[in-house]
Amino acid sequence: MQNDTEQGDWQPGDFKQAADRILARIEALETRENARAARLDVLEKKEAAREAAEASICYAEDEVRDLDDDAEVSPPRRVLPRGIVVPPAVQAGLDRLDVEARRLTKRLDSLETLLATVVGAERLAAHRHRTDFEIIKQTSKWTNTASIKHLVDNDKGVTRTLLPLLTSRSAVTLQIALGQAGYCQELQCFGARERLFHAGAAVVAAGAEATEEQVKELDDAADTARCWNIDNALVSDGLRTLATVQAKRAIFNATSDEALNAALIQARRQSRSGGGDAHDIDELNDLAAKARQRLSRVEITAEVEHRLMVATRWNDKDKLLKAIKFAEDHHHSSKQLDKAREKIRESEQLEARNKEKAEAFRKFLVDAKPQWYKQDLEAATNKLATIGVCSVEDMAMALDEAASRHLNDRLRDKGLRAFSDETLAAFEAALNIGA
Predict the structure, then answer these.
(1) Is residue 419 a contact partner of residue 387, using CB atoms and an 8 Å limit?
(2) Please, which domain of life does this record's source organism belong to (predicted)?
(3) Per residue in 356-372, pLDDT tens?
(4) Which among 141, 171, 357, 419 could disulfide-bond with 391, CB atoms 3.0 to 4.6 Å apart, if both were Cys?
Protein backbone atom coordinates (compact mmCIF):
# COMPACT_ATOMS: atom_id res chain seq x y z
CA MET A 1 0.00 0.00 0.00
CA GLN A 2 2.87 2.24 0.77
CA ASN A 3 4.50 1.55 -2.60
CA ASP A 4 1.27 2.38 -4.36
CA THR A 5 1.14 5.62 -2.48
CA GLU A 6 4.68 6.53 -3.41
CA GLN A 7 4.14 5.67 -7.07
CA GLY A 8 1.00 7.67 -7.02
CA ASP A 9 2.95 10.68 -5.79
CA TRP A 10 5.44 10.59 -8.75
CA GLN A 11 5.22 13.20 -11.45
CA PRO A 12 5.91 12.69 -15.20
CA GLY A 13 9.24 14.49 -14.93
CA ASP A 14 10.44 12.07 -12.24
CA PHE A 15 10.13 9.09 -14.61
CA LYS A 16 12.21 10.90 -17.23
CA GLN A 17 14.99 11.66 -14.72
CA ALA A 18 15.07 8.04 -13.56
CA ALA A 19 15.33 6.87 -17.16
CA ASP A 20 18.19 9.28 -17.83
CA ARG A 21 20.08 7.99 -14.79
CA ILE A 22 19.64 4.39 -15.93
CA LEU A 23 20.90 5.24 -19.43
CA ALA A 24 23.91 7.07 -17.95
CA ARG A 25 24.83 4.01 -15.86
CA ILE A 26 24.53 1.77 -18.91
CA GLU A 27 26.85 4.07 -20.91
CA ALA A 28 29.39 4.12 -18.04
CA LEU A 29 29.39 0.32 -17.89
CA GLU A 30 29.91 0.11 -21.65
CA THR A 31 32.84 2.56 -21.44
CA ARG A 32 34.50 0.53 -18.68
CA GLU A 33 34.02 -2.67 -20.67
CA ASN A 34 35.59 -1.11 -23.78
CA ALA A 35 38.59 0.14 -21.75
CA ARG A 36 39.10 -3.31 -20.25
CA ALA A 37 38.97 -4.91 -23.69
CA ALA A 38 41.54 -2.39 -24.99
CA ARG A 39 43.92 -3.16 -22.11
CA LEU A 40 43.58 -6.90 -22.77
CA ASP A 41 44.37 -6.29 -26.43
CA VAL A 42 47.54 -4.33 -25.54
CA LEU A 43 48.68 -7.06 -23.15
CA GLU A 44 48.12 -9.73 -25.79
CA LYS A 45 50.18 -7.74 -28.31
CA LYS A 46 53.03 -7.26 -25.80
CA GLU A 47 53.05 -10.98 -25.03
CA ALA A 48 53.16 -11.82 -28.73
CA ALA A 49 56.04 -9.37 -29.28
CA ARG A 50 57.96 -10.87 -26.36
CA GLU A 51 57.51 -14.39 -27.71
CA ALA A 52 58.63 -13.23 -31.17
CA ALA A 53 61.72 -11.55 -29.69
CA GLU A 54 62.64 -14.68 -27.75
CA ALA A 55 62.24 -16.76 -30.89
CA SER A 56 64.43 -14.30 -32.85
CA ILE A 57 67.12 -14.41 -30.18
CA CYS A 58 67.14 -18.22 -30.16
CA TYR A 59 67.33 -18.23 -33.94
CA ALA A 60 70.16 -15.68 -33.91
CA GLU A 61 72.15 -17.70 -31.38
CA ASP A 62 71.79 -20.80 -33.55
CA GLU A 63 72.89 -18.84 -36.63
CA VAL A 64 75.97 -17.43 -34.89
CA ARG A 65 76.84 -20.90 -33.59
CA ASP A 66 76.52 -22.34 -37.12
CA LEU A 67 78.67 -19.55 -38.57
CA ASP A 68 81.35 -20.20 -35.95
CA ASP A 69 81.29 -23.92 -36.80
CA ASP A 70 81.59 -23.14 -40.51
CA ALA A 71 84.54 -20.82 -39.85
CA GLU A 72 86.35 -23.54 -37.90
CA VAL A 73 85.99 -26.26 -40.59
CA SER A 74 86.41 -24.06 -43.68
CA PRO A 75 89.98 -24.08 -45.04
CA PRO A 76 91.63 -20.68 -45.51
CA ARG A 77 91.55 -19.20 -48.95
CA ARG A 78 95.00 -19.42 -50.50
CA VAL A 79 96.52 -16.70 -52.65
CA LEU A 80 97.78 -18.21 -55.86
CA PRO A 81 101.27 -17.32 -57.02
CA ARG A 82 101.64 -14.89 -59.88
CA GLY A 83 101.45 -16.36 -63.37
CA ILE A 84 98.79 -18.98 -62.59
CA VAL A 85 95.62 -18.50 -64.65
CA VAL A 86 92.36 -19.37 -62.90
CA PRO A 87 89.75 -21.02 -65.17
CA PRO A 88 86.60 -18.92 -65.70
CA ALA A 89 84.35 -21.47 -64.05
CA VAL A 90 86.57 -21.57 -60.97
CA GLN A 91 86.79 -17.78 -60.87
CA ALA A 92 83.01 -17.54 -61.11
CA GLY A 93 82.70 -19.95 -58.21
CA LEU A 94 85.16 -17.90 -56.16
CA ASP A 95 83.22 -14.72 -56.94
CA ARG A 96 79.99 -16.37 -55.78
CA LEU A 97 81.76 -17.43 -52.59
CA ASP A 98 82.90 -13.84 -52.03
CA VAL A 99 79.34 -12.56 -52.48
CA GLU A 100 78.07 -15.21 -50.08
CA ALA A 101 80.78 -14.32 -47.57
CA ARG A 102 79.81 -10.63 -47.69
CA ARG A 103 76.15 -11.57 -47.26
CA LEU A 104 76.95 -13.74 -44.27
CA THR A 105 79.11 -10.96 -42.81
CA LYS A 106 76.22 -8.48 -43.00
CA ARG A 107 73.91 -11.08 -41.54
CA LEU A 108 76.35 -11.73 -38.70
CA ASP A 109 76.61 -7.99 -37.97
CA SER A 110 72.82 -7.71 -37.73
CA LEU A 111 72.66 -10.77 -35.50
CA GLU A 112 75.40 -9.37 -33.27
CA THR A 113 73.43 -6.16 -32.89
CA LEU A 114 70.40 -8.20 -31.87
CA LEU A 115 72.39 -10.27 -29.39
CA ALA A 116 74.26 -7.33 -27.86
CA THR A 117 71.60 -6.83 -25.19
CA VAL A 118 71.40 -10.57 -24.48
CA VAL A 119 74.93 -11.97 -24.30
CA GLY A 120 76.73 -8.66 -23.67
CA ALA A 121 78.64 -6.28 -25.93
CA GLU A 122 82.05 -7.30 -24.51
CA ARG A 123 81.63 -10.97 -25.44
CA LEU A 124 80.52 -10.05 -28.94
CA ALA A 125 83.45 -7.63 -29.32
CA ALA A 126 85.88 -10.34 -28.20
CA HIS A 127 84.37 -12.77 -30.70
CA ARG A 128 84.59 -10.17 -33.50
CA HIS A 129 88.24 -9.30 -32.74
CA ARG A 130 89.22 -12.94 -32.56
CA THR A 131 87.51 -13.67 -35.90
CA ASP A 132 89.04 -10.61 -37.57
CA PHE A 133 92.52 -11.54 -36.44
CA GLU A 134 92.18 -15.11 -37.70
CA ILE A 135 90.96 -13.84 -41.08
CA ILE A 136 93.87 -11.40 -41.28
CA LYS A 137 96.36 -14.16 -40.50
CA GLN A 138 94.88 -16.36 -43.23
CA THR A 139 94.23 -13.87 -46.06
CA SER A 140 96.88 -11.15 -45.64
CA LYS A 141 100.64 -11.07 -45.82
CA TRP A 142 100.89 -12.73 -42.41
CA THR A 143 103.59 -15.36 -41.92
CA ASN A 144 105.22 -16.78 -38.84
CA THR A 145 108.24 -14.53 -39.36
CA ALA A 146 106.48 -11.38 -40.63
CA SER A 147 106.73 -8.35 -38.38
CA ILE A 148 103.60 -6.78 -36.96
CA LYS A 149 104.80 -3.36 -38.08
CA HIS A 150 104.99 -4.58 -41.68
CA LEU A 151 101.53 -6.09 -41.39
CA VAL A 152 100.02 -2.86 -40.06
CA ASP A 153 101.71 -0.75 -42.73
CA ASN A 154 100.49 -2.98 -45.56
CA ASP A 155 97.07 -4.15 -44.44
CA LYS A 156 94.47 -1.61 -43.28
CA GLY A 157 92.20 -4.39 -42.13
CA VAL A 158 94.29 -4.91 -39.01
CA THR A 159 93.62 -1.37 -37.77
CA ARG A 160 90.21 -2.19 -36.27
CA THR A 161 91.73 -5.21 -34.53
CA LEU A 162 94.42 -3.08 -32.90
CA LEU A 163 92.10 -0.33 -31.62
CA PRO A 164 91.23 -1.95 -28.25
CA LEU A 165 94.91 -2.69 -27.74
CA LEU A 166 96.21 0.80 -28.45
CA THR A 167 93.53 2.58 -26.41
CA SER A 168 94.01 0.53 -23.23
CA ARG A 169 94.88 2.69 -20.23
CA SER A 170 96.48 0.19 -17.84
CA ALA A 171 98.40 -3.07 -17.88
CA VAL A 172 95.47 -4.95 -16.34
CA THR A 173 92.98 -3.62 -18.89
CA LEU A 174 95.43 -4.40 -21.68
CA GLN A 175 95.89 -7.99 -20.53
CA ILE A 176 92.14 -8.55 -20.26
CA ALA A 177 91.47 -7.05 -23.70
CA LEU A 178 94.19 -9.10 -25.34
CA GLY A 179 93.16 -12.28 -23.58
CA GLN A 180 89.54 -11.93 -24.67
CA ALA A 181 90.42 -11.10 -28.25
CA GLY A 182 92.96 -13.91 -28.59
CA TYR A 183 95.89 -11.80 -29.78
CA CYS A 184 99.29 -13.34 -30.24
CA GLN A 185 102.31 -12.43 -28.11
CA GLU A 186 103.91 -10.44 -30.90
CA LEU A 187 100.83 -8.29 -31.34
CA GLN A 188 100.70 -7.68 -27.60
CA CYS A 189 104.28 -6.46 -27.62
CA PHE A 190 103.62 -4.25 -30.62
CA GLY A 191 100.70 -2.58 -28.87
CA ALA A 192 102.75 -1.99 -25.72
CA ARG A 193 105.61 -0.50 -27.74
CA GLU A 194 103.24 1.77 -29.67
CA ARG A 195 101.60 3.01 -26.49
CA LEU A 196 104.96 3.71 -24.85
CA PHE A 197 106.20 5.52 -27.95
CA HIS A 198 103.15 7.80 -28.27
CA ALA A 199 103.00 8.52 -24.53
CA GLY A 200 106.69 9.46 -24.50
CA ALA A 201 106.32 11.68 -27.56
CA ALA A 202 103.38 13.53 -25.99
CA VAL A 203 105.29 14.16 -22.77
CA VAL A 204 108.42 15.32 -24.61
CA ALA A 205 106.37 17.73 -26.73
CA ALA A 206 104.71 19.23 -23.63
CA GLY A 207 107.98 19.45 -21.68
CA ALA A 208 107.74 21.12 -18.30
CA GLU A 209 104.09 21.98 -18.97
CA ALA A 210 103.07 18.31 -19.27
CA THR A 211 99.86 17.56 -17.39
CA GLU A 212 99.39 15.01 -14.64
CA GLU A 213 97.36 12.85 -17.05
CA GLN A 214 100.19 12.81 -19.61
CA VAL A 215 102.78 11.89 -16.99
CA LYS A 216 100.56 9.14 -15.60
CA GLU A 217 99.93 7.78 -19.10
CA LEU A 218 103.69 7.49 -19.70
CA ASP A 219 104.17 5.81 -16.33
CA ASP A 220 101.38 3.31 -17.08
CA ALA A 221 102.77 2.68 -20.58
CA ALA A 222 106.18 1.86 -19.10
CA ASP A 223 104.56 -0.56 -16.64
CA THR A 224 102.65 -2.20 -19.48
CA ALA A 225 105.83 -2.56 -21.52
CA ARG A 226 107.52 -4.26 -18.59
CA CYS A 227 104.56 -6.67 -18.32
CA TRP A 228 105.20 -7.88 -21.88
CA ASN A 229 109.00 -8.00 -21.46
CA ILE A 230 109.59 -5.37 -24.12
CA ASP A 231 113.12 -4.41 -25.11
CA ASN A 232 114.82 -3.05 -22.00
CA ALA A 233 116.37 -0.18 -23.96
CA LEU A 234 112.94 1.07 -25.03
CA VAL A 235 111.60 0.87 -21.50
CA SER A 236 114.72 2.58 -20.16
CA ASP A 237 114.28 5.43 -22.63
CA GLY A 238 110.67 5.83 -21.54
CA LEU A 239 111.60 5.87 -17.87
CA ARG A 240 114.41 8.34 -18.56
CA THR A 241 111.98 10.61 -20.38
CA LEU A 242 109.56 10.31 -17.48
CA ALA A 243 112.23 11.24 -14.93
CA THR A 244 113.41 14.20 -17.02
CA VAL A 245 109.92 15.61 -17.43
CA GLN A 246 109.14 15.15 -13.74
CA ALA A 247 112.33 17.06 -12.86
CA LYS A 248 111.37 19.88 -15.23
CA ARG A 249 107.86 20.00 -13.81
CA ALA A 250 109.31 20.29 -10.30
CA ILE A 251 111.28 23.34 -11.43
CA PHE A 252 108.45 24.92 -13.38
CA ASN A 253 105.83 24.43 -10.66
CA ALA A 254 107.99 25.43 -7.67
CA THR A 255 106.14 27.70 -5.25
CA SER A 256 109.16 29.30 -3.56
CA ASP A 257 112.79 30.17 -4.25
CA GLU A 258 113.94 27.43 -1.88
CA ALA A 259 111.89 24.78 -3.67
CA LEU A 260 113.07 26.08 -7.04
CA ASN A 261 116.76 25.91 -6.08
CA ALA A 262 116.36 22.41 -4.66
CA ALA A 263 114.55 21.20 -7.80
CA LEU A 264 117.22 22.75 -10.05
CA ILE A 265 120.08 21.08 -8.14
CA GLN A 266 118.30 17.72 -8.29
CA ALA A 267 117.61 18.09 -12.02
CA ARG A 268 121.25 18.98 -12.77
CA ARG A 269 122.49 16.01 -10.79
CA GLN A 270 120.04 13.71 -12.54
CA SER A 271 121.00 15.06 -15.97
CA ARG A 272 124.73 14.49 -15.38
CA SER A 273 124.18 10.97 -14.08
CA GLY A 274 122.04 10.20 -17.13
CA GLY A 275 124.67 11.35 -19.60
CA GLY A 276 123.30 14.83 -20.20
CA ASP A 277 125.51 17.41 -21.90
CA ALA A 278 125.97 21.16 -21.54
CA HIS A 279 122.92 21.81 -23.71
CA ASP A 280 120.72 19.93 -21.24
CA ILE A 281 122.13 21.96 -18.34
CA ASP A 282 121.50 25.21 -20.24
CA GLU A 283 117.92 24.12 -20.89
CA LEU A 284 117.41 23.51 -17.17
CA ASN A 285 118.91 26.92 -16.34
CA ASP A 286 116.60 28.65 -18.84
CA LEU A 287 113.63 26.85 -17.35
CA ALA A 288 114.69 27.92 -13.84
CA ALA A 289 115.01 31.54 -15.03
CA LYS A 290 111.44 31.44 -16.37
CA ALA A 291 110.26 29.91 -13.11
CA ARG A 292 111.94 32.71 -11.13
CA GLN A 293 110.20 35.30 -13.28
CA ARG A 294 106.90 33.58 -12.63
CA LEU A 295 107.58 33.47 -8.89
CA SER A 296 108.50 37.15 -8.94
CA ARG A 297 105.23 37.97 -10.68
CA VAL A 298 103.34 35.91 -8.13
CA GLU A 299 105.05 37.70 -5.23
CA ILE A 300 104.43 41.12 -6.76
CA THR A 301 100.80 40.25 -7.39
CA ALA A 302 100.40 39.17 -3.78
CA GLU A 303 102.00 42.41 -2.54
CA VAL A 304 99.80 44.54 -4.79
CA GLU A 305 96.65 42.76 -3.66
CA HIS A 306 97.66 43.14 0.00
CA ARG A 307 98.22 46.89 -0.33
CA LEU A 308 94.94 47.38 -2.15
CA MET A 309 93.05 45.35 0.44
CA VAL A 310 94.52 47.30 3.38
CA ALA A 311 93.89 50.67 1.73
CA THR A 312 90.32 49.70 0.90
CA ARG A 313 89.62 48.63 4.46
CA TRP A 314 91.06 51.87 5.88
CA ASN A 315 89.13 53.84 3.25
CA ASP A 316 91.92 56.40 3.31
CA LYS A 317 92.36 58.40 0.12
CA ASP A 318 96.13 58.78 0.41
CA LYS A 319 96.63 55.06 1.06
CA LEU A 320 94.30 54.22 -1.81
CA LEU A 321 96.15 56.49 -4.23
CA LYS A 322 99.53 55.00 -3.26
CA ALA A 323 98.24 51.43 -3.59
CA ILE A 324 96.69 52.19 -6.98
CA LYS A 325 99.91 53.76 -8.25
CA PHE A 326 101.92 50.73 -7.05
CA ALA A 327 99.52 48.42 -8.91
CA GLU A 328 99.64 50.49 -12.10
CA ASP A 329 103.44 50.65 -12.02
CA HIS A 330 103.51 46.83 -12.03
CA HIS A 331 100.84 46.57 -14.76
CA HIS A 332 98.45 44.85 -12.39
CA SER A 333 94.72 44.49 -12.95
CA SER A 334 92.18 42.84 -10.68
CA LYS A 335 88.77 43.28 -9.08
CA GLN A 336 90.49 44.62 -5.96
CA LEU A 337 92.10 47.37 -8.05
CA ASP A 338 88.74 48.22 -9.62
CA LYS A 339 87.23 48.41 -6.15
CA ALA A 340 89.96 50.80 -4.97
CA ARG A 341 89.44 53.04 -8.00
CA GLU A 342 85.72 53.08 -7.29
CA LYS A 343 86.47 54.21 -3.72
CA ILE A 344 88.55 57.09 -5.09
CA ARG A 345 85.77 58.11 -7.48
CA GLU A 346 83.22 58.09 -4.66
CA SER A 347 85.58 60.14 -2.46
CA GLU A 348 86.16 62.71 -5.20
CA GLN A 349 82.43 63.00 -5.87
CA LEU A 350 81.77 63.54 -2.15
CA GLU A 351 84.50 66.18 -1.98
CA ALA A 352 83.00 67.97 -4.98
CA ARG A 353 79.55 68.02 -3.37
CA ASN A 354 80.97 69.27 -0.06
CA LYS A 355 82.97 71.96 -1.85
CA GLU A 356 79.88 73.11 -3.68
CA LYS A 357 77.93 73.28 -0.42
CA ALA A 358 80.79 75.16 1.29
CA GLU A 359 80.93 77.76 -1.46
CA ALA A 360 77.16 78.23 -1.34
CA PHE A 361 77.31 78.60 2.46
CA ARG A 362 80.14 81.11 2.25
CA LYS A 363 78.14 83.15 -0.26
CA PHE A 364 75.16 82.99 2.12
CA LEU A 365 77.25 84.40 4.99
CA VAL A 366 78.66 87.17 2.79
CA ASP A 367 75.16 88.13 1.64
CA ALA A 368 73.90 88.13 5.24
CA LYS A 369 76.84 90.11 6.69
CA PRO A 370 78.51 92.03 3.85
CA GLN A 371 80.35 94.23 6.37
CA TRP A 372 82.34 91.30 7.75
CA TYR A 373 86.02 91.23 6.97
CA LYS A 374 87.68 88.10 5.69
CA GLN A 375 88.93 87.12 9.14
CA ASP A 376 85.45 87.64 10.59
CA LEU A 377 84.00 85.39 7.88
CA GLU A 378 86.59 82.67 8.54
CA ALA A 379 85.99 82.82 12.30
CA ALA A 380 82.22 82.53 11.86
CA THR A 381 82.62 79.65 9.40
CA ASN A 382 84.89 77.70 11.76
CA LYS A 383 82.63 78.37 14.74
CA LEU A 384 79.57 77.14 12.87
CA ALA A 385 81.45 74.06 11.60
CA THR A 386 82.18 73.13 15.22
CA ILE A 387 78.47 72.57 15.85
CA GLY A 388 77.87 70.93 12.46
CA VAL A 389 76.43 73.89 10.58
CA CYS A 390 78.25 73.78 7.24
CA SER A 391 75.56 74.54 4.67
CA VAL A 392 72.56 76.73 4.06
CA GLU A 393 70.30 73.80 4.89
CA ASP A 394 72.06 73.30 8.22
CA MET A 395 71.62 77.01 9.06
CA ALA A 396 67.90 76.89 8.25
CA MET A 397 67.41 73.91 10.55
CA ALA A 398 69.44 75.53 13.35
CA LEU A 399 67.34 78.74 13.23
CA ASP A 400 64.02 76.92 12.96
CA GLU A 401 61.73 77.63 15.91
CA ALA A 402 60.80 73.94 16.03
CA ALA A 403 64.44 72.91 16.55
CA SER A 404 65.19 71.22 19.87
CA ARG A 405 68.19 73.49 20.47
CA HIS A 406 68.59 76.95 19.01
CA LEU A 407 71.77 77.96 17.19
CA ASN A 408 73.08 80.11 20.05
CA ASP A 409 72.25 77.41 22.60
CA ARG A 410 74.34 74.92 20.65
CA LEU A 411 77.22 77.42 20.51
CA ARG A 412 77.07 78.00 24.26
CA ASP A 413 77.05 74.23 24.83
CA LYS A 414 80.43 74.10 23.06
CA GLY A 415 81.76 77.07 25.04
CA LEU A 416 81.63 79.37 22.04
CA ARG A 417 80.40 82.96 21.84
CA ALA A 418 76.81 83.32 20.67
CA PHE A 419 75.77 85.51 17.75
CA SER A 420 74.09 88.83 18.44
CA ASP A 421 70.41 89.38 17.75
CA GLU A 422 71.36 91.61 14.83
CA THR A 423 73.45 88.83 13.26
CA LEU A 424 70.71 86.27 13.79
CA ALA A 425 68.21 88.62 12.18
CA ALA A 426 70.57 89.04 9.21
CA PHE A 427 70.83 85.24 8.86
CA GLU A 428 67.05 84.90 8.95
CA ALA A 429 66.62 87.69 6.43
CA ALA A 430 69.13 86.04 4.08
CA LEU A 431 67.29 82.74 4.38
CA ASN A 432 64.00 84.44 3.55
CA ILE A 433 65.61 86.12 0.56
CA GLY A 434 67.02 82.79 -0.56
CA ALA A 435 63.62 81.17 -0.25
Answers:
(1) no
(2) Eukaryota
(3) 888 988 898 888 889 98
(4) 357
